[in-house]
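Review form for a predicted model. The reviewer records the input and the model, then writes brief findings.
Reviewer: anonymous (R2)
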Amino acid sequence: MTDRPTIAGMSETTLGILFMVGFSVLAPVMDTAAKLIGDQVAVGQVAATRFVFQSALLLPLAAWMGWLHRPRRGEMGLHLMRAALLLVATSCFFFSLRFMPVAEAISIFFVEPFILTLLGAWMLGEPIGPRRYIACAVGFAGALLIIRPTFQDVGPVALLPLVTAFLFAFYMILTRRMATRMHPITLQAYTGIAAVLIAIPLLTAFNGSGLSELDPSWPGPRELWLLAVVGLIATLSHVCLSFALSLAPASTIAPLQYLEIVSATVMGFYVFGTLPDGLAMVGIALIVGSGLFVFLREQHLERRPPPAP
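Model under review:
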C-alpha cells in the first residue's frame, strides 16, 4: 500500500491507525450504553435499534456518494445471512452485559480470532501449523479463566460472549467473501437494512408475549437517549473500522483492537465501579498474548517467500 500524504500532512497509515484507535475507544462506549439500559427494554429491541440507526445513517451516505448498486439474488441471500449472524451475535452480547462487566465480556469475545483461524482451516482450506493450534488452545484457556468464576455468579449467561465470538467468526468468513465486491460503507448499509428486515417482524410477532428478551415496549426518556447513543456510536465506530481497514495495512492496525479491553476496563471502573479480578486479568493476558502471537505468526507466513518449484 502506498503511504501517500493526506490530511494535515498525515500519511494514510497514520490516519488508519487513528481511525482504529477511534473504533477501539468508541465500541466500549456503545456496550456501556447498552448495559445502562438494563432490562428496561427488550434486548432484541436494543439490537434492532442499533441496526435501524446504521441503515438510516449509512444508506443516504452511500447513495449520495454513488456507492450503491442493485444486489443480485444470490448476494441478497448473503446479506440476509450476514445480518442474521450479526443480529443474533449482538443480541447475545447485549444480553450478557446485563449480568457481566463490560471488560470481561469483551475479553471473552476476543477468542474470536482463534475461532476464525480454525474456521479458516476447516472452511477455506487455509493451512495452520502446530504453533497456532497451541496459541488457540492457550487463548481458549484464558477465556475459561474468565468464564469459570463468572459462571458461578451468573450461570450460563457467562457463555454468551463465547457464542457471540463463534457467530461473529462466521460473519467474518462471509465478510471476506463479500468485501471485495462493494464499498465497505455500502456493505454496512445493506447489512443494517437486512438486519432490520429480520428483526422487525420478529419483534412484532413477540409483541405482548411477555418474553423479556423479545417483547418490545415503548422506552422512557432515559432509555430513548441510551438507545440513540447505542445506534449512533455503533454506526460511527464501524465507519471508523471500515476506513481504518481501507487506509492502513491490517498488519499495522489489527493489534490495536486490543485497546478495546483497556477502554472497556476504564469505562467499567468509572461508570460501574468494577475492575476485573486477578484471575480475570490472567485470562485477559493469555487471550491478548495468544491473539498477538497468532496474528504475528500469520503475518510472518505471508511475508515468507514461496518454496521453489
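Findings: Residues 207 and 215 are 5 Å apart (CA to CA).
Further findings: The two ends are 28 Å apart (CA to CA).
Recommendation: see findings above.
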